[in-house]
Each structure stands twice: as structure tokens, then as C-alpha cells.
Design a protein that fits this description.
heterodimer; A: 310 residues; Rossmann fold; six-stranded mixed β-sheet; four-stranded antiparallel β-sheet; globular; B: 251 residues; mainly alpha; MetI-like fold; 11 helices
Chain lengths: 310, 251
């Protein structure tokens, strides 16, 4: 089990204990100003929040040949950890999130959450899709309460939680707006609030900030980091931007080009809060990028080869 | 406002031209009814209640036949879109049946149901059922897959997934099908009424023909246009535009 980097937090970020934090935060009581560092249990006892055990996935392409998308991927994510997965396009990183979310079956191998095998979707793991998939026929509030409605949570409690999570993403004023009335960054935050309101243990994020401008993205990085610290969720974040991965992650896993395999894992032991422009973030990202470059070249070569074959 | 002004000018000019042509007496009035004759026929028709009754009877048939076709069409469309076998067999049959004008069903309808209300409703049903079914099926297919995934991801499954996600997600397509279905049903009904002679606007039109009263024929034609447009142009188009805006489908 790799070193667990939870204590890499700077005390500047207000922290609450990781365990049982959800009920606390949610009573609407102000978060305790006393900074309590998460107590890290000794590595032998901890059951990984999410464990991928030799996951493989292959599928038939339209031309009939079998394509191996993921090959024997094994990964462990600790409770409360922020794991970033990077890789070239076409390495199956989005697919991996879909497998963890249980939206798609793998060909072989198993996904475990809290030690129990996953079969099918469950609200303990919520995926924020790259295209968001917000429901345009519902208001912002309606989107946020959707998961709770499916869990048959009472109206009063839903109202209260919608308020809470919209405040968390600074969208209280837009509760009654429709999605088409919002900007890209705001939609992103609605998606985050909708996912958080389902109160998952694990938040799966699929290149959520790829389509945003740099300023909005930086802002959302700060907010995501704050929310992660406040809610103690485990986050698995997929991106192709190495610097973003280093900015956010406790750990960065690098996937190879097709078939996707874990090439290497990097622990990021930089103090938080971090910034994209920080020299040590850039330096760490540089190291990872060196390792990634070979994979990017392979992906480009494959693309050109496809082009030529046509 | 500007658009309205343009329309007012256009329609006044149209009626003016019509009046001018009628005044010139190029054709006798029984071939080319003047606007004042048609206006008179409209006035008389409403005054002796025959137009009111005609409208009421036609709209009642329309509502019954159309509602029936919406309900059946949605069920059929859903069944076809969720079953590969039905899609490949029944789906293809429905598409080919759509090329058959529903008025062609009249001989069979009369044979099966007699000269009754049921026969008319059957023709209306056959007119709009297919387009509603096909639109429903298309809607299920064209609906972005992401909504279903997002719904399942957030804990929806079974009927609730259908009711709270799949159905609203395909609403723009359904409304489109309903609009088409309305247009087909409207045409079929008027056609059936013209052959059937059992009250309704179609019969009023044919009555004008039998009496060689072209004023009445044109008055009823205008009524049919106005009623059809009121529903299609005002209700459905507004609904469609609002939905497209909301769903981000309009540019």
C-alpha cells in the first residue's frame, strides 16, 4: 500500500475530521474552526475505498475486430483520497470511470468499493460526465434534488440540502433558473452540486473542466479543493491535463495508450492549497509529462495510421 | 409589432385584389364568389348556428380520435423502440403504411363499422397513429444517451427512470410527433366528413357544393384553415419553440 498523502494538507485549509463528516456538515452548523487533521489509520487496517482488481475491457469495433481498451488495470484509492488519472486520448480513462460507476460491465476483473464487488450503478459512486448530462427540463434546484428524490428523501430535507449544496457551489441565487440560462462554469457547478447532493462516498469526475476558460477553471479548482476538504469525499478525477492533475491530486496515476494500463503512479506531496502556476507544481507536472510523452506519441501515431489507412 | 403590421397590409391587399377581380365580373359569381358573398355566408352560417354545430361536432371527433391516437401511438412507439424484434418487423410495416393516405381506409371502415361515428374515428386514428408512433420511436432513439446514464447514475431505475428521465428527455421529439399527428388527423377527419355526410365541417362544405353555393364552400374552407392554423400554428408551434429553447436545441 502506497504512502497515504492525506496529511499533505496545508493547515490553511479548514479541515474537519473525515469520518462522519457528512452529517456534521449537513446540519447547517458552521464548520468547526478548529483544524482537526484526519487521523490516518495504520496502513494495514485500511480497506481501500475503491479497488480495481485486474480490470480488462475489450469490445467489438464496427469493423468486427476486437479491441482491447483496458488491460489488467489495478488501482487502489484510499478513503478521502484525491486520485487523478492522466493519459493520452484513447487510453480508456473515461471508460474506467464508467466501470467504477457501474454503468458498463468490464470484460474481466473486479471493481470493489469498501471491499464489496460492484455490480451496477449505485449512489455511493456518482459520476460527473464530461458532457455533464444535466437535465434541461428541470431547474437548477430540480437537478440538485434529483438523486435525493430517487432515494425517496422527504421534501423538507431535500429543500434543506438543495439550499446547502447550492450555497456550497455559490449558486443559491440560481435555484429556479433553467440550465440553458447558465454559463459553462455555472453548469459545471450545478453538476458538482447535483453529484454532491446524492451524498456519494466516491466522486468520479470525467474531464469536468476541459471545456472551460482558464480563469473559470482555476476558480473551480479552488472550489473543488475546498469542497473536498469540507466534505471528505474520495475523488477520482480524470484529465488529460497533467498540471491540473498535479494541482488537484494527492496521487496521479498515468495510463498508457491503448490498451490502457497503469504505467506509473506518482505521489504529489506538495502543500495545499496549490496553484497551476506554482513552480513546484510545474516541475512535478514536467516529470510526469516526460513519462506521458511516449504515450502521447503512440496515440498520435495510431491516429495518423488510421488516417493513412483510409 | 412590425411583423403584425406587415401581415395586416398583406392580407388587406389580398382581399382587396380578390374584391377587385370579383368587381370586374370576368367570371360569373357562381364560379368566383366575391369576398362580400363569402362574408355573408360566414355571417349566415354562424347566425343560424349551423357553423357552430359543425365546428363543435368536428372538434369533438378530432379530440376523441386524436387523443386515442396519442395514447395508442405512445404505447406502440415505446414497445417498438424497446424491442429489437418489433422494431425490425412492425417498425418497417408502420413506415410503409404511412405512405397510404388514411382516406383509403374508408371502404373498409364503412364495411366494419357501418356509417357510424366509429368509422370516422377509425379513419382519423389511422391518419395520426402512425406519425405519433414513429415520432415516439424516433424520440427514444435520438434522445441523447447521456440522460439515461446520468439518471441511472443518480439512482433511477425501472419505471422511475422512464418517467423522470427518459420521457422528459424525449419530449421535444414527442411534441414534434404530436404536431405531425395533429396535422394528419385534421386532414383525415375533414376528408372523411366530406364523404360521410354526417354533420361536421366537411359536410357543410359538401352541402355548399350540392347547392352550388360557392360562397358557403369558401366560407367553410376559410373556417377549416383558421381552425387548423390556430391549433397547429399557435399551440403546437409555441410549445415546440419553448421546448427547443429550454433543451438548448434551437440555435
Amino acid at each position: 500500500m502506497s504512502t497515504h498523502p492525506q496529511n499533505a494538507f496545508s493547515p490553511a485549509v479548514p479541515l474537519v475530521p473525515r469520518s462522519g463528516v457528512r452529517t456534521n456538515v449537513f446540519q447547517g452548523k458552521p464548520v468547526s474552526p478548529v483544524v482537526t487533521f484526519p487521523v490516518r489509520p495504520s496502513a494495514e487496517v485500511v480497506v481501500p475505498k475503491v479497488a480495481l482488481d485486474s480490470i480488462s475491457l475489450s469490445y467489438k469495433t464496427t469493423s468486427g475486430e476486437r479491441l482491447l481498451a483496458l488491460d489488467n488495470v489495478s488501482l487502489e484509492v484510499m478513503p478521502g483520497e484525491f486520485l487523478c488519472i492522466v493519459g493520452p486520448s484513447g487510453c480508456g480513462k473515461s471508460t474506467l470511470l464508467h466501470l467504477i460507476a457501474g454503468l458498463h460491465p468490464q470484460t474481466s476483473g473486479k471493481v470493489f468499493v469498501d471491499g464489496a464487488p460492484v455490480n451496477g450503478p449505485g449512489t455511493d459512486r456518482i459520476l460527473i460526465f464530461q458532457e455533464l448530462g444535466l437535465f434541461p427540463w428541470l431547474t437548477v434546484g430540480g437537478n440538485v434534488e434529483f438523486g435525493m428524490k430517487m432515494k425517496n428523501i422527504g421534501k423538507a430535507e431535500r429543500e434543506e440540502k438543495v439550499q446547502y449544496y447550492l450555497r456550497l457551489v455559490h449558486l443559491s441565487k440560481f435555484k429556479n433558473s433553467y440550465i440553458h440560462q447558465l454559463s459553462g462554469g455555472m453548469r459545471q457547478r450545478v453538476a458538482l452540486a447535483r453529484a454532491l447532493a446524492a451524498e456519494p462516498d466516491v466522486l468520479l469526475m470525467d474531464e469536468p473542466f476541459a471545456a472551460l476558460d482558464a480563469q473559470t477553471r482555476d476558480l473551480l479548482h479552488d472550489e473543488l479543493e475546498r469542497i473536498w476538504a469540507e466534505t471528505g469525499r474520495t475523488i477520482i478525477f480524470v484529465t488529460h491535463n497533467v498540471r491540473e492533475a498535479v494541482r488537484l491530486g494527492d496521487r496521479v496515476a498515468l495510463l498508457t495508450f491503448r490498451p490502457g494500463q497503469v504505467k506509473q503512479e506518482f505521489s504529489v506531496d506538495l502543500p495545499r492549497p496549490r496553484h497551476m502556476e506554482q513552480p513546484d507544481v510545474a516541475r512535478t507536472a514536467g516529470n510526469i509529462l516526460d513519462c506521458l510523452r511516449a504515450e502521447i506519441n503512440k496515440s498520435l501515431e495510431a491516429e495518423y495510421a488510421d488516417e493513412k489507412a483510409r | 409589432m412590425k411583423k403584425l403590421a406587415k401581415q395586416v397590409i398583406f392580407y388587406s391587399a389580398l382581399v382587396g385584389l380578390w374584391a377587385l377581380l370579383a368587381k370586374l365580373h370576368i367570371w360569373p359569381p357562381y364560379l368566383f364568389p366575391p369576398p362580400w358573398g363569402v362574408g355573408r355566408a360566414l355571417w349566415d352560417g354562424f347566425a343560424d348556428h349551423s357553423f357552430w354545430i359543425g365546428i363543435a361536432v368536428t372538434m369533438k371527433r378530432m379530440l376523441i380520435g386524436y387523443s386515442l391516437s396519442i395514447v395508442l401511438g405512445m404505447i406502440l412507439g415505446l414497445a417498438i423502440s424497446s424491442n429489437k424484434f418489433l422494431e425490425e418487423t412492425l417498425g418497417g410495416l408502420l413506415v410503409s403504411l404511412q405512405s397510404l393516405p388514411s382516406i383509403c381506409w374508408i371502404p373498409l371502415a364503412v364495411l366494419w363499422f357501418g356509417l357510424t361515428e366509429k368509422a370516422i374515428l377509425f379513419v382519423v386514428l389511422m391518419g395520426s397513429l402512425l406519425s405519433v408512433t414513429i415520432a415516439m420511436e424516433d424520440g427514444r432513439k435520438q434522445m441523447p444517451k447521456i440522460y439515461g446514464m446520468a439518471g441511472r447514475n443518480l439512482g433511477a431505475s425501472g419505471f422511475r427512470l422512464f418517467w423522470s428521465v427518459l420521457l422528459p428527455a424525449s419530449l421535444p421529439f414527442i411534441v414534434n410527433g404530436m404536431k405531425q399527428g395533429w396535422a394528419f388527423a385534421w386532414r383525415s377527419l375533414i376528408q372523411a366528413e366530406m364523404i360521410f355526410l354526417s354533420l361536421g365541417l366537411g359536410q357543410l362544405l359538401m352541402m355548399g357544393r350540392d347547392l352550388s353555393d360557392m360562397n358557403q364552400v369558401m366560407a367553410v374552407m376559410i373556417l377549416i384553415i383558421i381552425l387548423g392554423f390556430a391549433v397547429d400554428g399557435l399551440i403546437f408551434r409555441t410549445m415546440e419553440r419553448r421546448l427547443q429553447e429550454k433543451y438548448g436545441l434551437s440555435t
